[in-house]
Amino acid sequence: MAAAGLTRATSAARPLMRLVTMSGVPVLQQLHLEERLLRTTGDNWCIINDGTAPPTIVMGVSGRVSELVEIQPVLRDQVPIVRRFSGGGTVIVDQGTVFVTFICNKAAVTGLQPFPRDIMTWSGQLYGKVFDGFGEFHLRENGRLKQHHVSTLSISIFKYLWFMSTSIMLTAMYYSARKHTDFLCRMKEYMPSRSFFTDGVIAALGEQFSVEPTDIETVLSDDDDDEFVPSTKMLSEQDLEGIASSKESLIRV
Amino acid sequence: MAMATSSRLFWASRAAAYLRISTFPRAFSTVLKDLKYADTHEWVKVEGDSATVGITDHAQDHLGDVVFVELPEVGSSVSQGNNFGAVESVKATSDVNSPVSGEVVEVNEKLSEEPGLVNASPYDKGWIIKVKLSDSGELNSLMDDEKYSKFCEEEDNH
Question: TM segments (chain B) (predicted)?
């Protein structure tokens, strides 16, 4: 199988990639925007959200809350939990997280099949360019970066579109029982600034796409699809209390 | 060596014909005759006005080990080309799109406990939904086994 490479395209041949950059947007709002763009447009999008507030636990579409989250501390501290529309693991995100999401149609990358292997190869090459010269950062098949673990990855395939969201953690906080401190590192120890990272992503994209910055307000005002209802949702206190008091094998919220 | 190879190929093709499996010059994923296929890698088996739907061997191979299958409600409607559920693997989540329109009359409940059936038996025990067809004419827009095989080959070689 020929792997799709991140080759420099001629300016005439570059497909359009619409770029939305945000800062500090709540992750629920970010995910609602991404889901809307994915479901209602056929365009290529890159969405960057530099930091988010409040700190939020984000779960994949099939994650079981009782297995992945310590519910009592979450209820006590009133930490929001969001179940997103795409797959992937569970992470807590905050101001120290930079999100980079790609939504691409089948024609976006020549030769790229909308399957995980191709998507991972393409994204690995893209991030390789971004991290070049800053140590051993390479995207691995399971979404973790080789040697230093700084990210979580979510890949989803929707008919002729594929969606890849990476949350790069500049710092790390976990409510899970798992201990990550033995392999997790802080991105800020390796890169001079956050904007250096986000600018690097945009520059790497520009080698392959015609990148068109798009204002978020324009995106929302252009949207005529009032019928679209996102499936990404925040779990309510009642949802969590129900999970805590019942066997979750009978309840999936 | 050449004669042994050609003999093996002869018996392999005979076995494939008996099992209603298409053969290829290269080792591609399995494609069954008598099924119809969508370009989003779902298959449909039609029996009268009833259809069984799943994802193909090509799809499960590319997705990886399936860990979760999101199933629709019995009684819900599906329409050709639109998603009705999702398959999540260790690598990615993928929408599953219906190759036909109609009403969901049964879902494969076993997939809740054994999602790996989609990998192990994509055309048999890994079926996902059964549909009462509303428009059998839609089947004409789907690919037969030969066209689907060629489609997969072109995708893999692109």
Answer: none
